[in-house]
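User: I'm preparing a small set of examples for a lab meeting where we compare how different chains pack in three dimensions. I only have the primary sequence for this one, and I'd like the structure in token form so I can line it up with the others. Please keep the answer compact; I'll paste it straight into my notes.
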Amino acid sequence: MAAEMPAALGPSPARRDALTRRIRLLVAATIAYNVIEAVFALAAGALASSTTLIGFGLDSVIEVSSAAAVAWQFSARDHAVREAREHRTLRIIAVSFFALAAYVTVDAVRALTGTGETERSIPGIIIAALSLAVMPFLSAAQRRAGRELGSASAVADSKQTLLCTYLSAVLLLGLVLNATLGWPWTDPLTALAIAAIAVKEGHDAWQGKGCCAPSTAVPSVSAEADTCGCRAGCGCHN
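Assistant: Understood. Below is the structure token output for the 238-residue chain.
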């Protein structure tokens, strides 16, 4: 009886090169958008004394650093070099998450203790709505490419971009409630929710958790899968 053939293999070299190019383009687009977003969000946040809006602007700065780390990893032409850079890139992304969580928590506590008051910000509402429309598409496209390529760092960076989507949603909610109902306390409370998400994603990135396409045969469908739809023990960098 002939030996059983593997159910599936990782991407071919040509497909891997195509996915690498796609990730480079997505990372470049993410960096460009977040630089613009950071400038406007930080300016609007300073004018309105908005903890969440300033945190949103800082998240854009952090997203730039995270995406820049992935750009550095994928700037290598050789696949083996990119693999060797994966662990360091994941650590940079994790530290980015933790830095965001620390700042947002401190500033939210400051606002809740009454040492600061959030003013209404129409520019902030516009920025949040625009990001809520743009960020999900960038995140989803990079996550798909990262999963197929088997890159935990690309997936982790897509989660950083996805966090920007969460930030946009809670920021928009907080700013609208403050503008319409005069509830400034919604701003620091939503900021604390953002910090909790950032800590969780930072921990996952530090541990090297991500959805990686295996480079060898995929096991049977009965194998345990994680929440991202990838099999357990797929060989992600830890």
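A couple of notes for your slides: Residues 13-48 form the longest helix (36 residues). Confidence is low (pLDDT under 50) at residues 1-8, 211-238.

User: Perfect, thanks.
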